[in-house]
Structure formats: structure tokens, C-alpha cells
Design a protein that fits this description.
single chain; Immunoglobulin-like; 6 domains; five-stranded mixed β-sheet; 0% helix; rod-shaped
Length: 571
């Protein structure tokens, strides 16, 4: 039999010659007269390592008979073509047999020859990697799924698609500094040095860069007054996404209200400063899919002067003028100045002032915000009515009699010419509002405190004035001279007024008129009538009040008898 030759090749074109063989002209051969089966080797253009082109067209017979071919590739597959391409599905060593047969019909018309070939498969390159990640977020690239049928000593080469590479490591962490889509290539080499010793796997990874939110410039509405429209427009159109993803926009206006859209309008209910939050989202299911920005909305109040309510005061009183209810957008930045209306002024929001004359004054307040010169000063005024107290005096008799009609008169003066009200108190429990002049009758004697209050109606502490006068109301005394008297001429008679009285308790003075031209004083008196007869005795008592009812009289008749004359006649 012919010798069997075995070749270990990875790829190529094999020529087989029965009796003599040639392999790429690199080996020698021998020949006999049998038909020759020849496999030719040609340059291989296929990049795969388990595909071969078997060429038997060089086979021949000595007499150039017609030759038929039969191939057995050793993997269960056969062919009758002169030139055949065959791919081994599995790596390994295979015995390839070529049988040639000519049409001579002789016993030597058939010959065969075998060759051993080694089919190699490239390593399997594969790796695990996420499809998406975030900028600057470390991801793990793992080549564990890569393998080789004949070798465990694999070399790994990474190309991250961003210009950076890494060698040798099977697992590696990687972070991309910029967003974008990157092609990651893994090359696995089994170190065999053959053309199919390496394989490459590729994946596209999408690196997401967070969108950059841009809420716009600070929004300011200057010099806004209460009740004015507070609508602002917010624009996020300058927000960008490096990956060109479609963005959604969510707004938090800082007053509890929210909105959406690249450009929004919002009406605030109150003046103030608001921190508005903008969140833009590229809607990727990653932790880097949003961007946040803030913008301040300043709704600045124009300064508003508040001088307060109108007020009244008295001359020379300390008047407090308070403008602290004035407002602006920033506390403590409001300057004020008061103009009192009497030619004087003072700086400050809260000041004091004394008005020296009665009258009506316009106290004006001017305020301005020292930190916001864009807004003009604000002015307000209050009316200050300065009142002077009226003056009043009472005119009446000092002493009157009980039951008499007493004339009372109040003389009042008011510098402002206000209409006055008169309130009388007669001191005996009765009162009157019947004007400045009236009469009053006291039923009982006594000392009465009469007062009158005049009110100018200004409602100030100095709106009233009071005058007071005491009126002494006298009750007449009661004179009691006693009973009629009978006495004798030349005999001392007693006169007694002790039964006289005064209801007011006044001390009484007593005066006696004995009816004979003689008089005496005192509560008790003695008198001697010198002549007989009937004499009218008159007692006058006086209480000293000095009124028309201060005296009282009482009298009786004194019968004065002459004593008999005793005459003795001797007859």
C-alpha cells in the first residue's frame, strides 16, 4: 500500500497525489504507474479557520483516462466534485480520503489516498455589559462568556470606543466622562499564532449625560402695589441635553402651585420672593435622567406710606405719629419723614410732636425704600385736630332761701368756637342739660355744691371744663317768745326765748322789744315796767345767713299792773 501522510494545517488548499504527493511545493513525493489522485493547494481567501478547498483536478492516469472523484471528509460528509469547499463544523483532526477511478476497467483503475487535517475554530468572544449607563458612573465589563475549545489561556484586549484601551484584564471597570453612544470591542486571542487565533465581539453602549436645566434669569416685578397683576413668564428653552433626548419640564413655583412645559406663565396671589424649581427629564430609566435649576421670582412691593387714622389731641400734648404700618418688600429698609403741618418736620417712621395752638393740621408722611431707588416715594397724611379746653364760670346768688327760685348762669368761652353742651349738677341729686342759664328751687336748706361741665364735642381729654359754686340755702328760724305775761309795775319780769329754733342749726341772735320803748338782746332778758298798762312785747331772732329769710319774730302782750295803794286814814 502507499504510505499515508498526515498534515496539520489550519486552512488552505490541499493537493493529494497517489504514489507521489505535493503540498504547496514544500515537500517531496514519489510516483508509480497507478492513476494519480492529487489535491492542489491554493491561497485561501476565507478568514475562517475550519473551511478548506479540496482540489483534485491535478489527478491523472498515465493514459489520460477519464477520472471520477470521490471525497470522504471524515466528518460524515462526502462529495464527488473535483474541487470542493468543505467546512468542518467542529474543531478536530479529520482523515480526508480522495478516491479516483479511471474508465479503463482494469484492476488498477482505482486508487485512493488519505490526508489528515486539523480544523480549528477561533475562540468565542463575548462579554457582559449594560446597554445604558450614566456619565462618570462605573460599569463592569466582564469577558467571562468568552471561551476557546482548545485553550484556557486567553488574552483579552478591550477598546472602549472613546479612544482608550485596556489589555489583559478579563474584568474591568469603566466610566465614560462624556455622554454618547460608544462601540465597545473585545478581542480574545488563544495565543496559537494562527490566523484564526482571535475573535472580536462588539456592543454599543449608550452613555447618558444628565440634561442641563436652565430656568432662566431672575424674574423681577418692581414697584408692585397690592392688588396688581402678579403674572410672570418662565422660560426653560435654554435647557440642553447632550444626548439630544426629548425633554419634559416640571415647574414648582414656590407657592404650592406646579406647572409643566418649556415656557409657562403663572399668576402669584401675593407679593413676595419665591424660589422656583425647574426639573427637566430626558425620560431615561437611569439615575442621571434629570437636571435641576432654581430661579428667584421677586415681586417687589412699591413702598406704601400709611400715616394711620385721623386723630385729636390737646394743645401741648405729646402727640405720637406712627407710620410703622407703612410697608415695602424688605423690612428695615424704609425711610420716613413727617411734616406736621405747623411748619415743623421730623425724620423717622414713628415720631412725637407738640402742637402749641389749637387748630386742624395735616400731618404728612413720606416714605421711600433706601435699597430700591427705582420706586418713587409714597405719601400719606392724617388729620390732627388740636383742641384747647373751654373755660366756664358759674354766676348765681351765694345765699338763697329754701323754696326760692334760684337763677343759675354758666359763662363759657371756647377758642375754636365749638358748640358747647352744658351738664348741670345741683348738688341735691338733681341734674339738668337745659343750657347755660336756668333756675332751680331747693326744697331744703343746706350747703349745696353746684357744678356745670361744658363739652366742646371734640372727644379729647381737654374737651370739657368744669365750674363749681356753693349755694347756701337758708331755712327761716322759728321765734318763740313764750306766753303772755302779767307783771307788776316796778317789779322785774323775766323774758325767755329758749323755745326758739333754727332748722339749719344756725346760731341765732335774739332781740327783744318790750313795747315801752326799751329793748334788750339775748335769749333771756329781764325788764322792769315803770308804768302799768298793756305792752306788746316783740322777739326777733336772726340766723345770720344774710338772706331774706334769716329772721323770724314772735310776740305777746305784757299786762303790767300797778300795785294797790294802801292808805290809812284815821278818822
Amino acid at each position: 500500500m502507499l504510505a499515508k501522510e498526515t498534515f496539520w494545517i489550519r486552512t488552505g488548499i490541499i493537493s493529494i497525489l497517489l504514489g507521489a504527493f505535493v503540498f504547496s511545493g514544500a515537500r517531496w513525493g514519489y510516483a508509480n504507474s497507478l492513476p494519480q489522485g492529487k489535491i492542489s493547494q491554493e491561497p485561501l481567501t476565507s478568514p475562517q479557520c475550519n473551511s478548506f478547498t479540496f482540489d483534485a483536478t491535478a489527478s491523472r492516469t498515465p493514459k489520460d483516462k477519464h477520472v471520477s472523484f470521490s471525497w470522504d471528509f471524515g466528518d460524515g460528509k462526502t462529495s464527488r466534485e473535483a474541487v470542493v469547499e468543505h467546512t468542518f463544523e467542529k474543531a478536530g483532526d479529520y482523515t480526508v480520503t480522495l478516491s479516483v477511478k479511471d474508465d479503463s476497467g482494469l484492476a488498477c483503475a482505482q486508487a485512493s489516498h488519505t490526508k489528515r487535517v486539523r480544523a480549528s475554530l477561533p475562540p468565542h468572544a463575548a462579554f457582559d455589559a449594560p446597554e445604558k449607563t450614566c456619565v462618570r458612573e462605573e460599569i463592569l465589563l466582564d469577558a467571562a462568556p468568552s471561551f476557546d475549545d482548545h485553550s484556557t489561556d486567553l488574552a483579552y484586549s478591550w477598546d472602549f470606543g472613546d479612544g482608550s484601551k485596556e489589555y489583559k484584564k478579563k474584568k474591568i471597570s469603566k466610566a465614560y466622562p462624556k455622554g454618547g453612544s460608544y462601540k465597545i470591542s473585545l478581542t480574545v486571542d488563544d495565543n496559537s499564532g494562527s490566523v484564526c487565533s482571535s475573535a472580536t465581539a462588539q456592543k454599543i453602549i449608550h452613555v447618558n449625560e444628565p440634561p442641563v436645566a436652565e430656568a432662566g434669569e431672575e424674574v423681577m416685578l418692581q414697584c408692585v402695589h397690592e392688588g396688581e397683576d402678579l403674572t410672570v413668564t418662565l422660560d426653560a428653552s435654554k435647557s440642553v441635553d447632550a444626548n439630544n433626548d426629548a425633554l419634559t419640564y416640571q415647574w414648582d413655583f414656590g407657592d404650592g402651585e406646579k406647572g409643566s412645559g418649556v415656557q409657562v406663565t403663572h399668576a402669584y396671589a401675593q407679593i413676595g420672593n419665591y424660589d422656583v424649581k425647574l426639573v427637566v427629564s430626558d425620560n431615561t430609566p437611569l439615575g442621571c435622567g434629570t437636571g435641576v435649576d432654581f430661579v428667584t421670582v421677586r415681586l417687589n412691593k412699591a413702598p406704601k406710606a400709611d400715616a394711620g387714622e385721623d386723630m385729636t389731641a390737646c394743645v401741648n400734648d405729646e402727640v405720637v405719629l406712627d407710620g410703622t404700618q407703612s410697608y415695602t418688600d424688605r423690612k428695615g429698609t424704609l425711610d420716613g419723614r413727617w411734616f406736621f403741618g405747623d411748619g415743623q418736620s421730623s425724620e423717622g417712621l414713628k415720631v412725637t410732636h407738640r402742637y402749641r395752638k389749637a387748630g386742624t393740621y395735616q400731618a404728612g408722611l413720606v416714605v421711600e425704600n433706601r435699597l430700591n431707588a427705582m420706586c418713587p416715594p409714597s405719601r400719606d397724611a392724617r388729620t390732627v385736630t388740636v383742641n384747647s379746653a373751654p373755660e366756664v364760670a358759674i354766676r348765681s346768688l351765694d345765699r338763697v332761701c329754701a323754696g326760692d327760685s334760684v337763677q343759675l348762669s354758666a359763662s363759657a368761652i371756647d377758642d375754636e368756637g365749638d358748640s358747647l353742651e352744658y351738664y348741670w349738677n345741683f348738688g341735691d341729686g338733681s341734674m339738668s342739660k337745659d343750657g347755660p342759664q336756668l333756675t332751680h328751687t331747693y326744697a331744703q336748706g343746706g350747703r349745696y355744691r353746684v357744678s356745670v361741665v361744658v363739652d366742646d364735642g371734640a372727644g379729647t381729654a381737654c374737651s370739657t371744663a368744669t365750674a363749681m359754686k356753693y349755694v347756701n340755702v337758708n331755712t327761716p328760724p322759728v321765734a318763740d317768745a313764750g306766753a303772755n305775761l302779767s307783771c307788776c309795775v316796778g317789779v322785774e319780769a323775766d323774758f325767755n326765748a329758749e323755745s326758739s329754733a333754727d332748722p339749719d342749726g344756725d346760731t341765732l341772735a335774739y332781740s327783744w322789744d318790750f313795747g315801752d320803748g326799751t329793748k334788750a338782746a339775748g335769749i333771756k332778758a329781764k325788764h322792769i315796767y315803770l308804768q302799768p298798762g298793756a305792752f306788746d312785747v316783740l322777739l326777733t331772732v336772726e340766723d345770720g345767713a344774710g338772706t331774706s329769710c334769716s329772721t323770724s319774730t314772735a310776740g305777746f302782750t305784757a299786762m303790767v299792773h300797778d300795785k294797790p295803794e294802801a292808805v290809812i286814814k284815821i278818822k
